[in-house]
Amino acid sequence: MKLKIALLFLLSTTFLMAQNTISGKVNDEFGNPLAGVNIHLLGTEINVKTNASGFYKIENAAMGRYTIEASLEGYISKKETVLLESSNAIINIALEKAEKPSKDAEKLNDVFVKGVSEKQKKEETAQAVSVIEMKEAKFKTTDLGEVLAQTQGINIRRTGGLGSRTNFSMNGLTGNQIRFFLDGIPLDYHGYTFGISTVPVNLIDRAEVYKGVVPIEFGADALGGAVNLITPKIKSGFSGSFAAQAGSFGTYRTSLVLSNYDKNTGFFIKGSGFYDTSQNNYKVDVDVADNAGKLKKVTVPRFHDAYEGYGIQLITGVKDRIWAKELSIEGFYTDYSKEIQHNQLMVGVPYGEVMTYRKAAGTVLTYRNDFGENFNLDIISGYNYRERQFTDVSDYVYNWYGERIEGSAGNVSGEISESTGPSDTYTWNNDVFSRLKASWKISDKYAVSFTSAPTYSKQTGDDRLITGYDPASAVRDLFTWVNGADFKIDAFNEKLENILFVKNYLQKVNSEEKIPSNNTVIKEDRSVNYFGFGNGFRYKFNEQFSTRLTYEYATRLPQTDELFGDGQFIQGNLNLKPERSHNFNFELFFKSKTNAERSSWQAQTNVFLRKIDNQILFVPALDRNNIYQNVFAATSKGIEVSGSWTSKNDRLSFHANSTYQDFYNDSDEGIFAAYKGDRVPNQPYFFANGGANYSFHNLIGKEDKLALFLDARYVYEFFRSWESASVNPFVIPSQYNIDLGATYHNSLRGFKYALTAEIQNITNEKNYDFFGVQKPGRAFNIKLVTQF
Question: What global pTM score does this model have?
């Protein structure tokens, strides 16, 4: 009994000794500072008043829950409930004028202040990570790829509009060299097989971008880094959101999230879904032969380029129990269809009937728990089925006007290539994956973690138009197993953090092809085993200045599409070797002091180096013979700079960033040795982003807001082919893009809603991307978002 009393006294004393500060600013409903406002910390004798700038400060407040009351004669008093969990909390208050002053006229709002946001917590670690919050992006009409492209070091290129092939680049490295996750699970294993740009922004809370150095927790191989999309946490009770968007080129996008969580039982259920469609019929410039057979430039709307996709996800289980922090099961299904209009280079005759389809379904089982204060376990396991269909069976030839060329009927069988002939190919993948992570906090200064992630994939297929030997029917297996361990040190009152880690990569490839003509079987198998290591170091000099140095000797194992082909446009290459790279980042962070009386700013710079061996390159062709090959050694080095500024009343803000990267061929031998020193083709090397936001408050109602925003992007010219290959290499010209929009926020009977009108590419610039394929021009979009 005495021991319990002593422990209780010790805990109470510790709690009371944790003194904190609550500060903030009080404005009127128009954003003007209010002086002389009385700030009372209810339940205490603490009373302070705001100064001439509307600023107040309460010192020596113990951690806990408080209610602040702000009152001023002629205004409606207001109360804010604060959950104080760290050394400082900033609570800004807006008071409304009272038309008829009343003692009972007061308002109570609950504000839970954690002190440090999830973004700040993540970015202040020794991991090479930047966090992109989707709070404002959810109201805009841009897709997720375009949101990420506004970040320094990231470039998104695509072969058209919504649903087209997207090429994601980070610090020069691109495509499969970057791994994508959704809540720590590979994005493909959630059914998003059409890439990151087709993931609805409104289903995502934030994106964590890891540059060059990937934590062991993902259990994945990666060369250029990783992007982890985080979905919103499930709230207590019933909640949800709905978004609907309509725009130019026949584009419509919708998404819905519904969830319910009972804190008493721990039971939760969450469902989400989306539906997207677009005709992609924007205008492009193409070469068309006239009656005399002479090519001339014409501007025509795209045809046969429509996209449609939909998907559903349901997850249920229990959480926040003693025996399980989370135990859940998830199921999902997605279905996509995309019309194909032209080849990779957008040259030659177009296609009028080529189609590609993709479906995916699967389940994920998750178990997480904390065993005591110092040990936690995280287990994820699941199954994923992927199906792809490619059809090219037309007997006609089309022109760029979308017309069947007269007399072409029956002359060809299949539009893409006479050599390959017609095709109706199905490809199936069955994937089984698991990931186990165990973490042990040895003390306040030391912690260790271990991750093990095996993955098995089996691929086969069938071309229904082939009666003899069918290459698509080959049975191919891929087993990948990535293990990792790290050791974390916190020192000097958390000013210094260091994470040392090692990884092991194992991959086994098996292929079995039956040859009916001679009743034989061709078998191929190989295995590789590599080790890697790295270190992350962060030192925080003070609240305003910190630095971070990260390194990884990384390995990226070839994926199924690269090794086996995709049954559509990519041919397999079983001889691919893993890519390896030395990845360095040196970052500096600066930010202003926290002060509600002043504007705030922050700046960041990153110097990076990627030294790559056995670079795997996508080698395009005019038909279906595209392939991935190990072609050269390469080096990417450069610098990123970014900064932002926000006014003291949070109404006006600016942000800007720029990236310069020198990504060049470093091969001494092989077929590309003659181009040593040349920049890697089809890769922008200088680009910049910028934007501004301004908001008006209380325009019509007491709680409404009108936010104006402008986003701009500039890309300097770059070569589409090797710059020394010819006297006049093909250059993709410099280009820029400006988006302008406005969002109106309000609430109706407890439902928050926002209505956005946006013009993308307001100047109607002709922009070109992947291999010079033209992108959409000016587009008008509207979007409605509701939250409840």
Answer: 0.83
